[in-house]
Amino acid sequence: MTPQQRGVALIMVILMIAISSAILVALTDSTYVAMRLNSAAEQRVKAEYILKSAINVAQTLIKNDNNDFDNPDTDLWLKFSDGMEIPGDLLGLQEANVRVSLLISSEGRKIPLMQLKSNSSTQVPTKWVEITARLFENLGFDQPSPPTQGSNKAPSKEFSSKELVANIIDYLDTDEDSANVPNFAQGMEGDLPKGQEFRNDNRIDSLASELSAIPGFTSDKIQRLLPFVSARSFSKININAAPPEVIKALDVDLNDAAADRIIQFRNPAGGGPFTANDLSAKLGDIVEGPTGQRLASLVQAEGNFFEIIAKVEYGTATFLASATLKKTGNGRMPKILSLQIY
Fold it and tell me: Most buried pick, 55, 227, 316, 330, via CB within 10 A?
């Protein structure tokens, strides 16, 4: 073999080694990526079952609540009202790197926006229109929105609290006309171009996504509002769970001091909680006169709807589930109205 042939052969060997090395590296990388993907998929599947188990735990805790009022001394679900980690043994978990936490709260502590709906035969209850507007005012919605930094867009129209409520009524009603609540504010649906009217079907499926479709509800306003409003349909507020912002919105004559006395009383150390039997009498002692009577007609000592948030920390990954449950009573498991896993 000539020196030239030996040189070509050497080059061919080196080339084959390089190609083989490249293939080996590619196969190794592909195998590593596949293993990671399989591991992630396995984690997602396990996390989904763990989250559903956590929701089942919440259902069981609520099912076993036999009181007709929220009692932190006996209602086990209230132990999770601020969020709490669930022991792994309770869910049958043996893996040390898995942490599960659960938050259970009364959805009845919020103001139900579905009370703003109407149709051709039913007018919107004026009291809920005024209550919702007062909540918006208490949250500062009458203040101008802060300018968006770095944006060249012209500022959008500012809506007052009452106009925002009227826009929600427009979103919920079954016609294409502007809402016109007497002595209140007019909506804007009738002024929208043809084909841009609201969907008009008397419901809200997701507050977080649908409020942004209603004129005037900026991301900042939605973020401030979500802890205090519900898309569920109920007619009385859970006085044992409602935050101060909601309580103060329930009556025009309910001042901060009275709202503070209500919150102080409902804690066991203050004499509470309110019960179904003494609710009207106790409220009458705390808030005297017509204001206390009006307030008693708007509240109850417990709620039938519950908001559940479950979280699974699986190694470095985090998975969440949110659900809404409805208490059915008679010893039956609460009904799951909605369930989303992230």
Answer: 55
Please give the single-letter amino acid code of residue 256: D
* DSSP category for residue 74: T
CA distance 132 to 289: 23
* Cβ atoms of 41 and 294 closer than 8 Å: no
Three-state SS at 276 = coil
Residue 306 CA, chain-centre distance (Å), reads 10
- Specify the pTM: 0.81
Strands 237-238 and 299-300: what pairing? parallel
**DSSP code at position 76:** G
Secondary element (H or E) of residue 39 = helix 3-63
Let me know: does 186 contact 178? Beta carbons within 8 Å: yes
pLDDT one-digit tens code per residue, 157-201 = 788 999 999 999 888 887 787 877 778 888 887 777 877 777 667
Answer for the pair 284, 293: CB distance below 8 angstroms, yes or no: yes
Q: Which domains does the chain have, with CATH numbers?
A: 3-108+304-341 (3.30.1300.30), 111-146+157-300 (no CATH)
Mean pLDDT computed over 205-218:
88
Q: At what angle do helices 161-172 and 126-138 cross, to 10 degrees?
A: 130
Q: Helix 256-266 and helix 279-286: axis angle, to 10°? A: 140
| Residue among 282, 279, 337 nearest 308 (CA) | 337
CA trace torsion 21, 25, 26, 32 (10° rounding):
160
